[in-house]
Amino acid sequence: MKVLQRYFATEIIRAVSFVMLALLVLFSFFDLMGELTEVGRGGYRLSHAAVYIALRLPGYVYEFMPIAVLIGTIYVLAQFASNSEFTIMRAASMSTVKAGSILAKIGLVFVAVTFLFGEILSPYSTKQAEKLKVSTMGATIAQEFRSGLWTKDLIKANGLNGPVIGSRILNVREVLPDRSLVGLKVYEFDSDFHLSREITAARSEYQGKNLWRLFDVVETSFPKTLAKQDMLSIPSQKFASRDVVSEITPDILSVIFVDPDRMSAYDLAAYTKHLTENKQDSERYAIAFWKKITYPFAILVMMALALPFAYLHVRSGSISLKIFSGIMIGLVFYLFNSLFSHVGLLNTWPAPVTALAPSLLFSMIAMIAIRYVDRH
């Protein structure tokens, strides 16, 4: 069986690699057509567009891996069936369970590769792609918002530790490519939600370890017992610089502009925790987190869906028809997976259920199909 395992693995990996290459070339062409409208803005040139598209390829590898595995596996199994190789394997005592076991072991390799792309390569390359585009165009993040970027943070007694003593709302006019902030306004509230302090700064630079250094600072404090008629006479203090400790980091700010499906599970978990602590809606990112955890295992489901095609003889349809069937099944799964996320978000279904439901449904279909062909 080791010979069969090696034979299956070699053929399937070769076929999946070819399908993935075809998909990457196709979608790179579509992306290039879309980027041509941006070429010429600022310093953005065709060479930058090519690098930008190349940096986005790891994300496509992650997204299309289940589809590529399905099509590639169907092609190989259909070839085995048309050449009567699978019939000979079955005659040599290879059961359906054994064939499924062989495919599962190969599938685990693709699962590991998908995790690698989804957790490390894709998030990093996507950030680099966006930085490249922003820096070459001379644009700034958040400039498309009329009132700037808004986010919320908690104020704790000892910086990042200790009990919560208040909250703050931050407004940023622009986020520059070097992760510095321009036009910062901070509104701090006490535990009773009374405005206690307003801070404005011309710019702010991140110093690391949750420390922001504000420059050209104007600070206004509002006593809790302040009468309404005294609001206009409150003095303000000016500082050349001021340090503020906050749970908000450049990585959290960048999350707002990145597609959750392109983020790592670690970043999604951190941002979901941040939203939950600040009493903000985190359902979208919770669903994305569970999809990120479960999506690579959809490859095993695709392998199971491909197995029945090995039991179909040539008279049941040509190889091209089987491959077309595989493409349609893959597209249906991809679209259903995306649609179910939106439906789950609208109906506030539990995030794990929303993420797992498509794979569970297609797993049931695969089991029914395998049982049917095995009996007939």
From TrEMBL:
The chain crosses the membrane at residues 12-30, 60-81, 102-121, 293-312, 319-336, 356-373. GO terms for cellular component: ATP-binding cassette (ABC) transporter complex. It is a multi-pass membrane protein. PANTHER family: LIPOPOLYSACCHARIDE EXPORT SYSTEM PERMEASE PROTEIN LPTG, SLR0882 PROTEIN-RELATED. GO terms for biological process: lipopolysaccharide transport; transmembrane transport. It is found in: Cell membrane. This is LPS export ABC transporter permease LptG. Keywords: Cell membrane, Membrane, Transmembrane, Transmembrane helix.
